[in-house]
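Help wanted!
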Amino acid sequence: MNGAAVPGTAAPPRAAAVPRRWTGQRRFFIGAAAFAIAIAAWFLLARLGVVSGGRFPTPSDVWRSARQIAFEPGYAGGTLWQHVFHSTRLVLLGFAVAIGTGVPLGLLMGTSRRADLLIGPIFSMLRPIPPLAWIPLAILWLGLGDGAKIFLIWVSAFTPALINTYAGVRSVDPTLIEAARVHGAGPGRLVRDVLVPGSLPMIFTGLRLSLQTAWMTLVAAELVGAFTGLGKVLATASLDINPGMILYAMAWVGVMGALSTKLLARIENKVLPWLKH
Amino acid sequence: MAEALSVPVVAVGAAARRARARSREAWLLPALGVLGFFALWQAVAMSGWVPERYLPGPLTVARTIVELSTKPYSGATLWGHLSSSLVRFGTGFALAAAIGIPLGLLMGWYRWLDDVVSPFFEALRFIAPIAWVPFAGLWFGTGIGGPTLVIFSGAFPPCLINAYRGAKYVDRRLVEAARTLGAGGPRIVAEVLLPASLPAIVAGLRVSAGIGWQSLIGAELIVVASGVGYMMVQGQLNVLTPVVMAGMVAIGIVGVVIDVVLRWFENRIRKSWGR
Amino acid sequence: MGCIRFENVHRDFTRGGESFQALVDVNLEVADREFVAIVGPSGCGKTTLMRMVAGLEFPSAGRVTVDGHEITDAGPDRAVVFQAFALFPWKSVADNIGFGLKCKGLPQAQRSEVIARYIELMGLVGYENAFPHQLSGGMQQRVAIARSYALDPGVLLMDEPFGALDAQTRVVMQEELIRLARQNPRTVLFITHAVEEAVYLADRVVVMSRRPGRIKEIVDVGRVRRAEGWDRLDHIEEVMDTASFVHLRTHIWRLLREQQQVDAVAV
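Answered by r_m:
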């Protein structure tokens, strides 16, 4: 199992006694076997009628839903591709605005003690309000359309971007800053050539969190009220009592979440070749 | 000589003045920032540039909070809604910890268990808690099961992962000592791995609580008939913005309190365990 | 061109509400192109002295001047080689060396020329596009030195530059530095706690006392070097074998040991 780094844990100090390749293969086979058994059981239970289409999806339910939503006219107002495309566009838009506002502000607060003291407390006050709690307000202000969704994505993605940029700037080795000053770097060059590259690793962590939060908030917002998107599909399937479609849409939410994380990791590796990985 | 003597006096004076200015800034600027924020908010609200219905001022919101504390709205007072929410949160969180921590420890110790459970865990992990809401509604209606499921799906992974890592990466020597003393698997898990991983577990609990509280809101926006999220939705449907904002404030404050409590707990553990 | 002067320099600092004296009554003059090493026990303030010349710290009393001008800020005329190398991890070797030139506004073509020159001088050919984390400690320090030299500074400040290197690499770097200093002489202020290193490299060795740091004694090593002809010898170990070298080294060790005995008595 590969857990994401969580605070309070440390890396293993010793190598495993069993040779690595054998361990890896064994893991894979046992895991695959367990998974296969579960799927087979699912099929079996569905066939036996233990699992009926009323509450719990059967494999054929899911298959049917997948086929329905794949082609025109789709489900809940569009095909899967249309929903996913629309949601992805919103996420990217909101994400871009969040980075465009969060990173510069984080840089400012990280470098200027005055800005930090002035703005920090305001931000600390607003931060405990979870992004999802902004949904009713966003609907009140901006309705059910794209504007509200982008606003919500901005709200949720702004915070991790800001915090991690701030932490990144403060974590830049002060000796490096001194070295830059010795070499005659002015404030502009200091920011561009030292502070930003130095904080990039942490900024990327912030971006990863931002992206995950953004997706989650979007799906939630679409669930509550929207015209289109994966969340809308979930909501409609819910009202239609269509467990097959619910499961299918859920799977896609998971896939989009995983994809965006992996994609960002790829980009990170490209942009930060100088990091010892 | 005279030049050398005059320099230190000037230097000390300037340095001291700088230090005083800095410590004055340390409380003055935050105070200005916060006050400025509220003043600006109040000014915009009063100016009518945005209609009062949609942007009530801070004073209005504060007054609404007080009102809601005594007069019920949508079925209960603010405190009534909060306790409904907290009960749900507590249930989901407790369930996540009760299953996640032991399972994580066992998976860290028994390799076969890890191999069997991991694929399912990895597959389900990426599904945002909020996506469980439709099934939550389908299976549990507006009962407590629905939100519990949603909170569980969010709170479970950190509990499991932290317990797992704590157990897997425990100091080998402690385990060897236990084995030479005759301890078998279950005893090792309970009496060596658990205490050794406690700091990691408690840290994970804090993350878990945060995610759980956030996911609760999502659940309450849709599948319930009480609770702070429900109250906010009702406020939104009736265009009562102060109610919505009051809910946001309440959620924020409770979230902070939960985090503070767990942080205190974490520090206590860290101190007594000496790590 | 690079004449350093410390006039009645004092340095206090406060920690946890209490005030400490780091440096007291330091008067020192470093002539142009002179190589001066400062040795002393930990906490004696030798690094602080260097940082004051660099413009990274300032005296509480007294003045520090370079060529008669009081120092107000850090700048490329007083290059610093840090103990921890301080290379920018996100820049290649070539870009690190060229950083100061970029700040000066030198156009690309000229920069490349200067960079290439120092790459060759410091034996870094082939590593132009490598990142710092791919290099060994010794290589990284070469890049750091190249980076500082590329600024063509009047003053070169070195803060225990070989402290993080293993013994063998250290010796190689010392020989390299001597070679460099002969080829491109400039004023050097070299901080170290390795007495042998100081005696081998410097024209004069300043011995500091324990905190509060004062100058205990200044040993004129250059005179002995010229008289004994150390430069005629090829390798460090030969120089360090001479009686004159051993004599100087022991003398400085004794000075430092006196500090420890003072502590022992006080305790």
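OP: Thanks! One thing I noticed: The domain at 70-271 of chain A is CATH 1.10.3720.10 (MetI-like fold).
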